[in-house]
Amino acid sequence: MTLLDDALIKILGVKPAFVRPPFGEFNEDARDVAAYNGESIVIWDFDSGDSQGNSAQEMQTDYQNLAAQKPSTILTLNHETYESTVSTVLPFALSAFQAQGYNMVTVAECLGANPYQSVTTPGTRDATWTC
After folding, report:
1. What is the pTM of this model?
2. Closest Cα to residue 42, out of 63, 26, 60?
3. Cα 28 from chain centre
């Protein structure tokens, strides 16, 4: 189990079934670690560009163009730490996709899988809860 898995079990009581590698970068070792931990690697096929500094208008245009192309599936990368992504871009993107007939689902729903390997009662904070 990884430190992150340990923290999620202690704090939330869940062990995820999926992992997104930082920056979307992974190699055979990362695949092996994910497999060892029972996790499937999930990678996006569309990057909103928010972490590269794209403006809300640029991202909205990109989302509009993507929706108009009507790919069979779309998995986007967005960062909730950017206010414009949360308050402006995502509501726009959701509307654009819904206007094209898309249904919004989680990765687990799309794959017909459980989002968690296990669910338990969250722990009680103690001395092991350190960063």
Report:
1. 0.83
2. 26
3. 21
